[in-house]
Structure formats: structure tokens, C-alpha cells
Amino acid sequence: MKTLLIIGIGAGHPEHITVQAARALARVDVFFLMDKGEHKGKLNALRREILERHATPGSYRLVEVLQPQRPLGSDYRASVDTLNAHKQAVFERLLDDEVADGECAGVLVWGDPSLYDSTLRIVEAIAADGGRALRYEVFPGVTSIQALTAAHRITLNSIAGAVQITTGRRLAAGMPDGVDTVVVMLDAHDGFKALIGQDLDIYWGAYVGTADEVLLSGRLDDLAEVIAQARQDARRRHGWIMDSYLLRRRT
């Protein structure tokens, strides 16, 4: 029997690791590090720092592989399904070739494994296949939503108000009815601009919890172009961007 631990490591700060996650890290014999390319080298550097702080020195090995890229196309769902199939093939190879029977492997997941991450779906599919003796455990982490609201010193919800978590792609349809607060996790095209004039506040953050953190907040109508420019500048400077934002109806 092989064991796989899916460990949430928080939104970017090395101290986001929970005590439970730290204990899980100490159990692992081999860690799988998914490399997203040279522009995102800081991500794996942070993973390595977390392991140096919390894993048992000399007791584990690292296997680093290049993460498959999502194919381009107009059908977003189909491209994600294709990406996950490629990731599943990578995971299956790693489990077969890099983990001995009785050993424990670990995967470090940004934020929390349950939120906008497909690792759980992929591992579920591998376990359901029945071709491997595999057990897996999941350890929650601090989400980018929690890191964002803490950085801005705000609550996630208004009193008795509903919250919706969505993407920039869906935000183009407008602010949902009956919802006071919307959190946007994936927005490559400044979807918040579609809501200018709707009397909203925005709380935006990039690289939250890291040394590169950038925060902006205020009335959306006043900040939409400022945030759009900040996103461009950050992407140009780092080669990539990891950001999220919260929109709330003004009272």
C-alpha cells in the first residue's frame, strides 16, 4: 500500500502552514514538486523553504517535474479536462516509478486543496481506477481568500449577506442577484471593469502573503484602471501574476 498526502500550504507566506500540515510534512518520504516554468521559480523556492522549515531533514527526497500546460482553445472546460488528464498521467507515473510500497508521498497545494485546484479530482480518479493500492489523506490550508481579507482587515461576508466565489470569466455576466459579496479567484482580463457604475467597493491583492505583496482597495469606479495598470506592471516585472479580489455592494 502506498500513501499520498495532499497538503494545503497556504497562499504564499511560509508561516501559513498549520500544525496539522507540518506534522503531515514530517511523515513524507518523497515530495512531488510540480514546476510551472522559469518565470514561476519563486513558487518552488517557497515550497523548498517550507520543507526546510517543517519536514524532517534528511528523511525525504524531492522529485521535480514540469507541470503540463493547459491547451489554448475557446472551450475552456474541454481544455481544463485535457490538462487534468495530462496531470493524471504524470501523477500515475510518479506513483508507479518514484514511490515504493509502504512509502508516503506528498503533494504541496497552494492555498487549500478544496478551492480552485484539481489535485483532489485527479487523485480521486487514480484511486477509483483500482489499479493501484493507494490511500490518500487531505490536509486543509489557508486560502487566498482568507489571506486577502486578512491583509485588508475586512470580513468575508456582510451581516446576513451571501457570498459567491467565481471567476473573471463568469463575472462578465454582472454582479449576481441576491449576493452582497463576490470573490474572484481567476481573472486574466480585468473582468471587474464590467461592473463599473454599480456602486461597488473592491479589495484587490497580488502575491498576497509574500514579499512581493501588492494591495489596493476602495471604490471600484475610482480604482478599476489603477488596478488594471498595477496588474500589467506586476506581470511585466515578475513574468506571472497570482491575484484575487473581493467586490462588495456599498451601503
From TrEMBL:
The keyword Transferase applies. The keyword Methyltransferase applies. It holds the Pfam family TP_methylase. InterPro entries: 4pyrrol_Mease, 4pyrrol_Methylase_sf, 4pyrrole_Mease_sub1, 4pyrrole_Mease_sub2, CobF. It comes from the Bacteria. Coiled coil: none annotated. SUPFAM superfamilies: Tetrapyrrole methylase (SSF53790). Keywords: Cobalamin biosynthesis, Methyltransferase, S-adenosyl-L-methionine, Transferase. NCBIfam families: CobF. This is Precorrin 6A synthase. It comes from Pseudomonas rhizosphaerae.
